[in-house]
């Protein structure tokens, strides 16, 4: 099957919908996050997390973002420093919150994320 723009968009939407089914367990975790849209790399902002999983996190932010925007995240969680990339998977302007799905995570960072999430469950 030839991949068209519509089928590519459908595949991305399906991936986002799949992420909403919570492939990874989420835990309540509040910590500072420095992040920026990769299209606007010069403008780093601070936000704080509401929850975290090995696959992504929810951030509280007063700024409006677009679903599908690529972001870079820098954070220290439970003594572990992370520098990750993600895609905004949902936006709730009324709650001033966005969901970010991590992308391109190394095996090492994935294992560290899983350890950090497990530490919040204790």
Q: Can you offer a commentary on this structure?
A:
The structure is a single chain. This protein is an alpha+beta fold and about 120 residues long. It has a single domain, classed as Thrombin, subunit H, CATH 2.40.10. About 25% of the residues lie in helices and about 40% in strands. The chain has 2 helices and 7 strands. The chain has a 6-stranded antiparallel β-barrel with strand order 2-3-4-7-6-5. The longest helix has 16 residues, at about 5-20.
List the helices and strands and how they pair.
Layout: H1 5-20, E1 27-28, E2 32-37, E3 45-53, E4 56-60, E5 70-77, E6 80-92, E7 97-103, H2 107-121
Quick take:
The protein has 122 residues and is of the alpha+beta class. 25% of the residues lie in helices and 41% in strands.
The assigned CATH architecture is: Beta Barrel
CATH topology: Thrombin, subunit H
> What percent strand?
35-45%
Q: Share of helix among residues?
A: 25-40%
């Amino acid at each position: 099957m030839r991949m068209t723009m519509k089928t590519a968009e459908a595949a991305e939407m399906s991936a986002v919908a799949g992420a909403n089914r919570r492939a990874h367990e989420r835990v309540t975790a509040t910590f500072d996050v420095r992040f920026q849209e990769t299209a606007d790399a010069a403008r780093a902002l601070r936000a704080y997390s509401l929850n975290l999983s090995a696959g992504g996190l929810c951030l509280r932010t007063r700024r409006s973002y677009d679903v599908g925007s690529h972001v870079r995240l820098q954070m220290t969680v439970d003594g572990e420093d992370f520098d990750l990339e993600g895609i905004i998977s949902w936006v709730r302007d009324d709650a001033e919150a966005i969901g970010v799905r991590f992308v391109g995570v190394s095996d090492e960072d994935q294992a560290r994320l899983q350890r950090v999430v497990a530490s919040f469950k204790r």
